[in-house]
Amino acid sequence: MNHWKIKASLFLNYFVFALLLNSVGTVILQVQNNYQVSASSASILEAFKDLSIAIASFFIASYINRIGYKKSMLLALAFVGMGCLLMPLLPSFLTTKLLFAITGASFAMIKVSVFATIGIITKDEKEHASFMNFIESFFMVGILTGYFIFSAFVDDSNPASTSWLEVYYLLTALVAIAFLLLLSAPLDESSVHNNKEEKTNNFNEMFQLILLPIVLVFVTSAFVYVLIEQSIMSWLPTYNNKVLQLPQSLSIQMASILAGATAIGRFLAGLVLRKLNWLLVLTTCLLLAAALVLIAIPLANNADTSHVTGWLDAPIATFIFPLIGFLLAPIYPAINSVILSALPKNKHGYMSGLIVIFSALGGSTGSLITGYIFQHYDGKTAFYFSLAPISLLVLLLIGFYRIQQKSLPNKG
What we know:
With 412 residues, the chain is mostly helical. The chain has 20 helices and no strands. The radius of gyration is 21 Å and the shape is globular.
């Protein structure tokens, strides 16, 4: 069966939410200028986003099979479209907090539904892993694009200008296109809903799932991976500014290299994982990532950034470390694909919810730990710390693979 329309819809959904979720850094800066809020007050926008993702995922995953995947995605797009439209119509810090709470909760609906839908529209484990990497790479393309879309609406000559809010008209239009495309895309969910399990205790279903050894090792692996990824992604601009002594605006711009490298890595992994064993690919990537940390950070000691004004005269060290995104890129979508492929399709909604919950917890933990080390030690030590969870993740993936090979639940 040709699923091109629903696949195109999933890509566009992920692209839109990548733009919105990862605009939080830009918006934090703008609300300080526009609404006269302090930096500490503005930083609460991150919590509105992350906590709404985690909380919503818990409930959505429990009831996703009743609601339906397509219907959940349509509701999410409708909610976030209204949130985007409110930004320029009712400009205030309260509206901004509301938008990120809506975006986080809606993303939980989108991600759980997308992950579960992939199991319906792919025919085998290799295609599942490949498509998972492609769609996650498109998420990174959305992040990368967001840096340039939002900056195009910012008035550098007048920091207090609210012209940047006009970007939300464009985003509302993108959401509307995504909604119409999904609405017109056929999706047969009968393999999920025809099992007559609608009256079971959904919370028990999810908790029973996490007791499976393969799921327990997986959620730990997902937690550790996102801890690594977010600790680097959230603090790379600070590393560029505080350690490499780059100008502040350039530090932010050059952090986009990480998103670009991750997007390319996931796209290529989508091709490679069709041919090679996933454990071989992922452990090789992790070992190379550890080697890159050991090479890139010492380069910062010898970097001369006293006359840096732009990309062309930035030191080599600025370009080397973000390439870690290329090496870490395949891990998250690949392990998500492995665990979903190992479970019956009617369990994919519950499993997707656990993925989102533990990913959100890992991201918050990684950012907090790295921030603590940055404050009490220095940036180099903070990024050297990534070697510890990278080593742990290698061991977890080996254990994950062994459990997968020995005893997989029967698919249904």
